[in-house]
Amino acid sequence: MDEASPASLTDLCLSLVSSKLELFCVKQADGSLCLRESLVFPQELADQLLCKMATEGLLNDGTVGIFRSCHQLRLRRACMRTARISAEAFHRALCPHRLLELDASRVNADLTISDIVHSLASSKELRESLQRLVLNGLTMTSLEEPSRRCFGALQGLRSLSVAHVDFYDSGLADVCTLPRLESLDISSTSVTNLTPLLGLRTRLRYLTMHQLKRLEMTTAQLLAVLSQLEGLQHLDISDDKQFTSDVARQLLEKPGILPSLVSLDVSGRKQVTDTAIRSFVEDRPGMTFVGLLATDAGFSDFLSGEGTLKVTGEANETQICEALRRYSEREGFVREALFHLFSLTHVMEKPRPDILKLVALGMKNHPSTLNVQLAASACVFNLTKQDLALGMPVRLLSTITQLLLEAMKTFPNHQQLQKNCLLSLCSDRILQEVPFNRFEAAKLVMQWLCNHEDQNMQRMAVAIISILAAKLSTEQTAQLGAELFIVKQLLHIVRQKTSQTMVDATLKFTLSALWNLTDESPTTCRHFIENQGLELFIKVLESFPSESSIQQKVLGLLNNIAEVGELHSELMDQRFLNHISTLLHSPEVEVSYFAAGILAHLTSRGEGLWTLDLPLRSTLLEQLHAAIIKWPPPDCEMVAYRSFNPFFPLLECFHTPGVQLWAAWAMQHVCSKNAGRYCSMLLAEGGLQQLESVRSDPNTHKDVRTLADNILDSLQRHQARMGQLPPQHCHTLTHKERDAQ
Q1: What's the per-residue H, E or C state across 531-596?
Q2: Fewer CB within a 10 Å sphere, N or C end of the chain?
Q3: How confident is the model over 386-406, as a mean pLDDT?
Q4: Is the CB of residue 489 less than 8 Å from the CB of residue 449?
């Protein structure tokens, strides 16, 4: 599927069915699920559903029960990689089907190769129908069960892969009796002698023997066996550079050996030269592939990989990409290819989604291999930095971002890996437009921030958090901010910067992060107060008296605190209110606006809850009203809101028109700047009735009534544009900065 296109409808439906399977099923007595009788899947979709469930980690003893019915779900090409099912569940669900192919790679250790093969062999139909069997990474037998020859019964088998299995010479001898076998992969097994392969001399077409570390044959003996495989077309004897065997050199120099060969992989082998490879290829004009990664060969024009002869290697981009494509499941080769790719990505000036996709594949297949993740994350940064991310498909960026988060989670203490991931995450395109688990990302970045003091990375981390926090739901923001260590760490950074009287990006992003995290989160606001946040923010205001951008962020956060009624007593501080009163008269509307908001909330609860001098309250209310009347309309939307609910109680304060005026001004501001979002939201939340009540009340001040009229006019125009349709509820942002800068 092309990442530049939306996910296919089929894939979306399969994902939904997999994740909500219980809605389509009934539970049987043994706990397994069974599809309702009316559901019958087309055969191709049955295969895809099984694969989707396995890929998503949803295939287990209960869910696999839906495949017991061959009528409803008829399997032919079954892929159940990494599934977690028992031998009994496998037998009951998979073996009734007339399978052509089965891929059970890396299923749980309790389901052994012996279990699988004996279950398959118990079906007469399967013994003949099964043509391809992949059992990579499995256990051969359980500890209690003696090793038995078990493959010989699968008479229809044409292709078998048992890579990374405790597979010995006896198993090879058993396999080599299969009458139709054409393809065999015994990579990284315990085979010591390849002589049984002679039983397949006329039939074997594909032979893969990557990293046969226990082979006890001499080079001459090995070549003697290979030379008799007269029909062999594809041979892989690649290695991981640990051995000094000259088998590749001798094979290349042996005249007339394997004349039908079209594909040869000697990656990682010693003593391989361009001259020998060219001579070998020219003697076999049908050759289409040569594997030369981690050898000393592949640097001649003949082996560039640009033409019909494909080459894996490290000489150029084409060879490296071919290596990432072909070796995606070979950890050592993926690491090697990524290492060489990194040096090329430094100078890439155009978006390369094709390469990023290959990097993602390597990361996905080797999530717990540090060297792969380290090299891959470095490549990701080079491929997505600055404007390069703009040319990448959103779906691909979403995939790669989730893989970066998985790497951060897997290796929390590796500083360079964490740095690579943070560098990649710190991208406007990714943070603003790409779908990924922002809540998880915010937690991971915060954990990093609490454990490291690197100043440059600290700036990036708080920038990421400030932007992510603005994108979270109210519940997620509250949950994140409720973690006391997060608030403490952010306050610590503010304290550091304030003591240094340093206004920089780190301070601004940290203030933005705190502002966003306290939004509609009483618990976070309480943490802020309990950790001397108010005293610190008063000091910030005193330390930077002419920095309007700092003042705006400080007052924005204190607005959030002022929305929490139970914390009003903490804000009844003469020194604090003196600062707010001064900033109310700031020439910067953004600063004056938030100062006014604090006063509006503090005075809205009446004289009875005002604990300072009542004349001060009256003076502040007069100043509040006078300041708002003087505000010019801002050129752009200076604030964003999730909901108007915090304003509705303020609109009911007829005894304090300054409070009403601030709430009405705020509503008019956002509705005039972004009518599509805010008029719909105001209508959905019952704002029309609230405003009509304000307009019709005889106690309403004329300034408030004027603003209410303006807002009602905006709502009427919006409804007209919408064709008088009932207002629809739309998703909105919290009242946070739209762009945390």
Answers
A1: CCHHHHHHHHHHHCCCCHHHHHHHHHHHHHHHCCHHHHHHHCCHHHHHHHHHHHCCCCHHHHHHHH
A2: N
A3: 95
A4: yes
CB distance 408 to 365 below 8 Å: no
CA angle 275, 281, 284 (to 5 degrees): 145
- Which pLDDT tens digit goes with each residue over 499-539? 999 899 999 999 999 999 998 889 999 999 999 999 999 99
Which residues are paired to 77 by β-bridges? Answer: 101
Q: How far apart are CA 472 and CA 291, in angstroms?
A: 47
Is residue 736 scored above 50 in pLDDT?
A: no
Non-local (6+) Cβ contacts of 519 within 8 A are 474, 477, 560, 642, 734, 735, 736
84, 59 in Cβ contact below 8 A? yes
**Rounded average pLDDT over 455-466:** 89
* pLDDT tens-digit readout, 309-318: 999 999 999 9
Nearest to 417 by CA among 456, 465, 380, 364: 380
Q: How many angstroms separate the CA atoms of 637 and 738, rounded?
A: 8
b/e burial code for range 521-538 (CB count within 10 A of at least 16 → b): bbbbbbbbeebebbebbb
**CA neighbor of 118 nearest in space, from 82, 97, 90:** 90
554 pLDDT above the threshold of 50: yes
Element (H, E) at 338: helix 331-345
In this structure, are residues 335 and 378 in contact, taking their beta carbons and an 8 Å threshold?
no
User: Are the C-beta atoms of 322 and 310 separated by less than 8 Å?
Assistant: yes
Here the contacts of 297-303 (C-beta below 8 Å, separation 24 or greater) are 297/272, 297/273, 298/274, 299/274, 300/274, 302/274, 302/278, 303/274, 303/277, 303/278
Supply the mean pLDDT for the chain. Answer: 92
Q: Which residues pair with 103 in a beta bridge?
A: 79, 134
Tokens of 149: 């020859």
DSSP 8-state assignment for residue 430? H
Which residues, listed in sequence order, are joined to residue 289 by a DSSP beta bridge? Answer: 263, 310
Cβ proximity of 727 and 683 under 8 Å? yes
Q: Please give the Cα distance from 73 to 488 (Å, whole number).
A: 55
pTM, two decimal places: 0.86
Residue 420: pLDDT over 80: yes
The confidence score (pLDDT) of residue 4 equals: 66
Please give the structure tokens belonging to residue 358.
Answer: 């290959």
How far is residue 647's CA from residue 670's CA, in Å, rounded to a whole number? 13
Whose tokens are 């915060």? That residue is 446
Distances (CA, A) of 138 to 113, 357, 502: 6, 28, 59
Distance from C-alpha of 666 to C-alpha of 76, rounded to nearest angstrom? 63
How far apart CA 39 and CA 62 sit, in angstroms, is: 18
HEC secondary structure over 166-211: CCCHHHHHHHCCCCCCCEEECCCCCCCCCHHHHHHCCCCCEEECCC
Residues contacting residue 200 through CB under 8 Å, at least 6 positions apart: 176, 178, 181, 184, 229
- At 200-236, the pLDDT tens digits run 999 999 999 999 989 999 999 999 999 999 999 999 9
> For residue 146, with 0-12 CB atoms within 10 Å meaning exposed, 13-18 middle and 19 or more buried, which class applies?
exposed
